[in-house]
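Internal tracking record. Fields below are filled automatically when a chain is submitted to the structure queue. Please do not edit lines marked as system-generated. If the sequence contains nonstandard residues, flag them in the REMARKS field before resubmitting.
Queue: standard
Priority: normal
Entity type: single polypeptide chain
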Amino acid sequence: MPNTLLTPPAIYRIGAVSKLSGVPVPTLRIWQTRYSAFSPATSQGQHRLYNDEDLRKAALLKTLTGQGHGIRLIAGLGNPQLEQLLQTS
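SYSTEM-GENERATED OUTPUT FOLLOWS
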């Protein structure tokens, strides 16, 4: 049996998600609390911990809201639906 190394999932704190996606930190917090756009894990120190899917979703939401889509209408969608919406926009 071959010895394969598993890469652990990437974990990002909110500042990194902000920098990589272009979404300001306060906006990410509002999207999470007001619209349930994300459900990040939390560290023992109560820091939000986002994964690759969350990072992609933040970037998609930024693009789509920039095109005029209301966050209230798209925050609950998954990444596949957001990507499809982006393609049809």
